[in-house]
Amino acid sequence: MVKKFLIIDDHLVVRTGVSILLKEKIEDLQIFNAENFFEAINMLRKQVFDLVILDINIPGGKNTEMIQEIKIIQPTVKVLVFSAYEEEQYASRYIISGANGYLNKLCSEEKMITVVTSILETGKYIPTEIALQIANAGLNKKVVNPLVNLSKREFEIVELLVNGNGNLEICNKLNIHMSTVSTYKVRVFEKLKINNLVELIDIYKSYN
User: Where in the numbering of this chain does the Response regulatory domain appear (predicted)?
Assistant: First the structure.
């Protein structure tokens, strides 16, 4: 039976490279591509897929909400998040939201095939350390790493703050307004239930 994959990534090189690798290793495979989330949603409404390979940083993307939207349209489709962001910081958030696996883009070709095969055969691929995070969170009835509650942009702000960047430096590096930086800082402090930069640095160092 022909398997159908949908690769959602805004970089042509990534889509092409992944397609070539998968077609070399997996028989009877048909691959479709989407360069933004809007295009992906339209394709999901017209075509049934076995696996969606999803980059989380794409035009029209909505962080973990993308997983839910995909599953609403196709409840049985498997979703592999394929991202440049570190597994330790992002994987548990997306897996808890319904993704069947998470893989860093710097992985080897062999690992890529192993992960895809695992998801197709068993329905999931969860790295051991991420599984432990999720298990501990369930036992403690809380998220082990509070930083996973932050959005991608909020986490970027945190990293810049922790590394000594001020509001002006952050707005210049991220090309956003000074008032926007202040808004993100307020959100981060509220989510983490902290009051100052010292506490933020303590939390960041505790989980990195």
Answer: 4-120
